[in-house]
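Lest this sound abstract, we let one protein speak, letters for residues, whole numbers for local backbone shapes, and leave readers to judge:
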Amino acid sequence: MIRGQGHHLNASTLEIVTSEESVDVVLIGGGIMSATLGSLISQLEPDWSIRVYERLGEVAQESSNAWNNAGTGHAALCELNYMPEAPDGSVDAAKAVSINEQFQVSRQYWAHLVSTGALPEPHNFINSTPHMTFVKGEANVEYLRKRVAALKDQPLFPDLEYTEDLERIAEWTPMLAKKRNPNHRIAATRIASGTDVDFGALTRYLFEDMDRRGASIQTNHQVTWLKRQNDGTWKLRVRHTVGQTPKTVTARFVFVGAGGGALALLQHSGIPEIKGFGGFPISGQFLRTTNPKIVAQHQAKVYGKAAVGAPPMSVPHLDTRVVEGEAALLFGPYAGFTPKFLKTSTWFDLPFSIRLHNLGPMLQVALKNFDLVKYLVSELLASRAKKMAALREFMPTAKDRDWELITAGQRVQVMKKDPEKGGVLQFGTEVITGADGTIAGLLGASPGASTAAPIMLDVLARCFPDRFATWEAKLREMIPSYGTTLSSDPEVAAASLAETARVLDLTA
């Protein structure tokens, strides 16, 4: 239970008020990761006191905000970077299947929350949207054919369609085919059961349910410092960002889910597990249209191949988005660089994150990723005309007047020590946990939000090994496939896909 007390110190006319509180769990950051972890804990341990601190005035305003990401339920249905072509020309489906397995865990959890009334009608945060891939040129078409061959018998990709026919592509989504040269070699795939997810809405609903279960979500509160005490608990300094009122909080467990702000807080914590880790920030922009005539003719998320040297998060894609019930189209992202780790933070984030223990790995990454640097420079220098030209590779009829440029969320890619290479740039997520399990944090980006449920289950397993066995029965109620793999049993996979589609009102 929460315990609080106030201490008052008078110094002439100045009164300093410092409140002290003690809670079981503190979640730093109001994004999808904290929301998912808090949701799980509030059901597994309903008597635990949970406190959430978000420095902005509302939750879900950084990477989880609907317009700061593409809303793709990353299930590897269309993201070609999850199945790169090997030097010998082969294509391996293992990572794509693994990513899909993780997404199915999230999907089952969301379905459970909808079925129990913890989440509202599913169309408020998830909608059926076909996932497609689209490539041009002989080499890319051959690659796509190999990708299809590797996936066609996978139980989690049952409705995968492939075509090289322009008319068939026009049936799937007209805007890809209109005024396209019929002599160009093209190919596309389509999975009708893909989804568009409003992670901002989902995050808000999860926090609302946590609030009903007794958690305290405090916005306009920033954690400025944290330190482990001799008894194993954590003392945190928290400042109200409006009145600058300070307070201290003691917690038995702390999760740092602050997106780009997580690295600095984990460094402040002093845990040795964060040594050697750095962050490389990448910003992005999208072109967006809400023109109903255009939006009505493209109902899909269509992914292409990334440019040479481009990070995976910069794979070009033309996406249907449904945000607060309104449909729009996004194209991008156009990558860029800023030293900020968050959209609303400062230009000093990158330089202030440098330590002696991560300087070497960061320099190694810089030396070995010249293609990435070159790509980012070219993106920074790209004119609007060049951005529109990239859009017309997907939509030949696109007109400048219909599209506005919006700024997406910041992504901070993980840089870390490597025994052989000195330092590597990691395109993915990295869970950092203290040795005693009293603190954990998340670094990295894609697939991120789509796999929040399995990532947070990993956090629970690593931080609460003594309690996890007692939670497993409840977890299997919430996530029927927990502890197994759907892809190993076609019948079980088909049943799971059908049931979650029914509950979430999706295309099966």
Notes: Confidence is low (pLDDT under 50) at residues 1-17. Residues 85 and 91 are 5 Å apart (CA to CA).
